[in-house]
Amino acid sequence: MRRKNEDHEYAENSDPNTIPTEVIQSMVDNYRSNQLACINETLQIDDAHSIWFDMVTLKKFISDIEIEAHQVDPHVSEEDLGIRLYYAAYPETTEEPVPEDYARRHTLIMVPTKKQDDLNYDFNPFESDCETDTETALALAAGIGREALAQNHGILVPPGNGTVESY
């Protein structure tokens, strides 16, 4: 059976990706017992162990990646685009729109990637000066005053309510 949504047509007999719940629980427990415990003990904080993003935000970010990537390279294929998730931490002193209780907590920052020569490079389409300048866009170097296509600001737990979590 062919699965569809309004934006994409999936391959014949394409089933959704699944992971057994026991594996999910084991991996979450492993993280909490090792990495999270070490972070909490070393930094003396109650660090976030999950982050939630609403579907609209995720879909918009994916759409932004596709639109901006095609502005830089009109021939880029969907298979050549991706998203890298960086582990990050909020600074000790937060500024709007970041809540104060997010200070020093773990978060994720998503950045687009583009495949070139079988490697998935961080990709910032805003670094390109013209449609043919993909080399500059692939060089996602940090710099003062520069903007990068990226996504953050999900809902952290803690400090958010953990009663909604299954794992």
How would you characterize this protein structure?
By secondary structure, the protein is of the alpha+beta class. The chain folds into two domains: 1-44, no CATH class; 48-164, no CATH class. Helices cover 28% and strands 22% of the residues. It has helices at residues 21-43, 55-72, 134-138; strands at residues 2-4, 9-12, 50-52, 81-89, 106-116, 119-122, 155-157. The strands form three sheets. It has a three-stranded antiparallel beta sheet. It has a two-stranded antiparallel ribbon with strand order 1-2. A two-stranded antiparallel sheet has the order 3-7.
In short:
The chain is α+β, with helices and mostly antiparallel strands. It contains three helices and seven strands. It has two domains: 1-44, no CATH class; 48-164, no CATH class.
Question: What's the arrangement of secondary structure elements?
Answer:
Elements (H helix, E strand, L loop, with lengths): L1 E3 L4 E4 L8 H23 L6 E3 L2 H18 L8 E9 L16 E11 L2 E4 L11 H5 L16 E3 L10
Antiparallel strand pairs: 1-2, 3-7, 4-5, 5-6
Mean pLDDT: 86
Percent in helix:
25-40%
Query: What's the gyration radius in Å?
Result: 19 Å
SS-derived structural category:
alpha+beta
Keywords:
single chain; 167 residues; alpha+beta; three-stranded antiparallel beta sheet; two-stranded antiparallel ribbon; globular
